[in-house]
Write a structure and sequence with these properties.
Radius of gyration: 24 Å
Largest sheet: 3 strands, parallel
Helix content: 25-40%
Oligomer: single chain
Shape: elongated
Bound molecules: zinc ion
CATH architecture: Alpha-Beta Barrel
Amino acid sequence: MWAIFRGERRRWLAAVAAVLLLAAAVVLAAVISSVPPAAGPASSPSATDNPTAPATASPTGSPSASTPATAAPAPSPSKALVTSPGATVPAPPASATPPVVPAPKPPAPAPKPPAPAPPPFPAALAGLDIEVIPGAGAVVALTFDAGANSAGLPSILKTLAAKGVRGTFFLTGNWAAANPAGVAAIVAGGHRLGNHSMTHPGFTGLSDAAIGQQLSAAQQAIRAAEGPRPLFRFPLGDRDARTIATVNAYGYLPVRWTVDTLGWKGSSGGITAQIVADRVLARLQPGRSC
Ligand SMILES: [Zn+2]
């Protein structure tokens, strides 16, 4: 739904509304502090589970699901060097009296890793790029990625409010910095925020340290009481085991998508509300609990 923010918002909002109407209910993508579904469920069963349809195109158009690990592992932020070369002991004076050797200084403590300590999510979810909300039942979670403009945001928020639906908005730090009022409006609407990196790079090409910088910078830029932790969405869906582990180490739980509505293409890309609705409905499957 990336392109919601790029314009064509009238048609797109119709698409969003259609999705909302068709969805059984919305559960925020939060796994830990799950938000109770606000919308009445539709008659048809729905779920976020879709094991047969892996995420396809990324919000910005690069189909990059399951990108294999290509980047050489970079030094982990948790690794620290012991910097103290060791205190030198002065040579004892040449005298008959027992030399007084100054006590060597204790080695300097190793720098602490930047990553926060315990992940604020269940350990069982570590290593996953979540596609199904554990135990959520027959619900659909709506998520929006914001990284371009904010043209469609007011209408989107209005539609969600009118339908009594809450969603999760994954924001890039750049977007948040450029749209502080938008961030506030999202929070005021009762929606959850997630971290979508600072500049939206592909993560598998980043070192662990660079990933940490992306996360931290975005977290600072978003600066909302509601988040963005612990939710994170990989830009372009570009992730592998290493990057997931690194994101976990920084206290984030990656959340993926089950159905790519292709809404990010916008009506200028040939996407209509009907196409969006059809794609969602065709891929709804009973969820699973775990
Ligand atoms: Zn994105």
